[in-house]
Each structure stands twice: as structure tokens, then as C-alpha cells.
Amino acid sequence: MEDRRYLIIDLKSFYASCECVMRGLDPMTTDLVVADAERGRGTICLAVSPSLKAKGVRNRCRVFEIPARFRYIMATPRMQLYLNYAAEIYSIYLDYFCKEDIFVYSVDEAFIDITGYTAMYRKTPREMARFLLGEIERRLGLPATCGIGTNLYLAKIALDITAKHAPDRIGMLDEITFQQTLWDHTPLTDFWRIGHGIERRLLRMGLSTMGDIAHAPYKAIRKAFGIDGYLLYDHAWGREPTTIAEIHAYRPETQSVSEGQVLLRDYSYTEARVVLVEMADQLALNLTSRHVVTASVTMCIVYSSRPDFFLPPASGTIRFDTTTNASSVITNGLTTLYHRIVLTGHPIRRILLCANHVEPEAEQELTLFAPPEAEIKERARQQTILSLHQRFGKNALLRATDLLDAATRRARNEQIGGHKAHGNQETVEPRKNLSAIRCTAGAAGTPAPERARA
Question: Which superfamily, per CATH, for 183-247?
Fold first, then answer.
């Protein structure tokens, strides 16, 4: 393979750092957690600032797990703010790289193929990484770390393991240095794609390090883990052939559209049915907004867990006579399935819906099984609802059932990813905003160069 170089940049404690910057505080020295206090002390902290992590507070802990002796700021999540910051960071990358060479891995992580840019900018990979980290901190005030590798996997491992111990927050690996420095590293869960379940299975096979996996019989690894064993064996040697170009070019054979939520308390059979109707209608609107239809929808109802009794989820699939995205058809089918498979006397905590094998409306309408006139009218009605939502907000037009006490749609319409989109503006008044940060950044230092061209 051609010798390539990849970067992956990760924003340190991204949500917490954004909250610190908006308050004019140093993200590296301020004790702050991002959590919704209204959900009680059992709620999960979405982010913990680096200074609290250094004191032993683990990321994604629950509020009650933070020692009482620590004094810290609790910031209500503002998901839209974090997305705005993520967009600003992406725009920084676009100042220097083509979008075809960037792969956004998560809201706070992005891979960049810098193979063709080192000569153009006359910088080594480490110099380029140092420059980008400096640009992010100069323009937005956010600290970041970086991994550099000869493939995507090694860049990710350099970020997750090596960069943590580097004074400049930059880690670098190739296959040789990976084998020399990390073959004996433990625990295995520090490595990308190895969770606690896979680690336990490997330990039962007598494999406790990447070096052990690399020298284990390949057939045994493949037999134990199937296709994942192939990836595991390659990663143990530091190999990964996939490129960013191949990721961008990938197209799945089939597509689906899903809706899911974790309820904030135990819901009764009747209450959960109210939420199901809301979710079925929202799923239909999502299908309509994408101009796709489906022939089947899968439902999974997860009961509340109890220490002395386990009840498996109730799941099933409803199939329609023709492909559809009509809310009435989908809702009626799912409520019928709900009454048939869900037990009445057990509290419910999660509801998942998935429209399977979706296809474009145009293809469906050209067949002999075109939708009936009533369904065409309903589709037009749903398009009108979407237009009103886009213009006036999702809560501008609601169903009567959305006003019931058990309903969740109104609250969820004000959330992103299950968390508040804008926080409590009446209690958190930011000292800065993104436009002010942009103006400050534009006035300091040299102006950004023209966007990179292919």
C-alpha cells in the first residue's frame, strides 16, 4: 500500500470545555460537569472537565458518584451549542483540507488524510498536528489531542493511548512502533473495538495482550469471533487497509429509519401505549421528510429491569400490504402488534421502532401497487405538517394525545440526542457566544488562508 499519514483530532471533554469557554473559564483548570440537575442525582454526567478527571472522577459517571468534598459547577446540557462548536471546528479543517479527505467520526472527533498535504504545507505530520491544535485553541479556546498513524486504526490508537502521556498531547504510531510499545499494554479495553465482553472471551482463551492475539493461531481467533476475528487479528498487528476515500464511497445494500427512547421512569402498559403512538407518528413523519416508504416496521419493548427477575424484551414485526409512510397505517399496525405481544402487568422503560428496507417514494409509485387516494392525501397532510414544523418549530402543531401526562413528544421536540437543546437560559447566561468568539479570533493573528483546493 501507498505510505499514508492520517490524523485524528479529539476535543478534550468537549461538552465541558464548551461550557467553560462560554463562561470565560479555563477548561483545563475549572471543575465542571455537564449534567441535567432536573433528572436527579442518578443522572449521567455527559462530560467531566479534565481537572475533575485528574482528581479521579471518571467520565460518564452519575452525579451521586462524584465525591461530596469536590466543589464544581454543574452545567445543564446545551446540545445545540455543542453542535455549533462542532461546525466551527469542521470549518477550521476546511480552511486547510478538502472535505473528501476528512471523515467526521463523532461530534468531537474527525479523521484527516494528510498524505498529500505535508509537502504542500512543508510541515511534518507532527508539525501539522501541532498547528491544527493551536488553531482550534486560538480561535475557539478549546483544548484538543491528536493521534497520527500510517492507517486509520493506528491513528485512533495513538490518540486513545499514546497521546494521553505526551506533553504536547500528540501521539504517533506506525506498525513497528505499535508492536514495540503496545503489544504488552493492558488492559485490552484501551484498544478501539475491544469492550469488556470481548476482553473476557479473550482472557478465557489465555490472551491478555495484543501481542498474545498477534501470535495466537489465526484459525482459533476466526472461529471464536467470526468476521470480527479477522479484524481483531489484523489490528493486533497494527494493520488496517480501509481508507477515508473508501469510507465516503461506501453505500449500504439496504437502509432503515428508526426511532427510540429511554423513558425517564417506569411506564405502565397504558402509558407506554401513548408514547408508542407518538413515536409511530414521528416515524411516519421522518419517512415522509426523507421521501421514502417501508413495507414493515419492527418494534421492541424493553421492560424495566429488576434485580430478582429478568423479563426478555417483547419484539415483533408488522408487515403492510404495500409500502407506505402513512401515519395512520403505521400507527394502527404497531398498536395492534403492541396489544398482541406486550405483557400488561410489567413496567416498561424503553421503546424502539425501526422501519425496515426503506425505498424511495418515486420507485414505489411507478409500480402497479400505487398507494390509494386516501394515503396520497395523508402524505400531503404530513408534508404540510413538516412545513409548519420547519417554519414555526415542532411544538407549533401537536396531536391531542401529545398533551397527555404520559406523553413525551413536547419535551423531546426541545431535545437533541435525548438532552436539552438549549439548557436553562434563565439560569445560565453565557458570557460569550459563537459570533463573539469568531470576531475575536478574526481580529487576532493572521487571517485564515483560502480554503484548500483539490
Answer: 5' to 3' exonuclease, C-terminal subdomain (1.10.150.20)
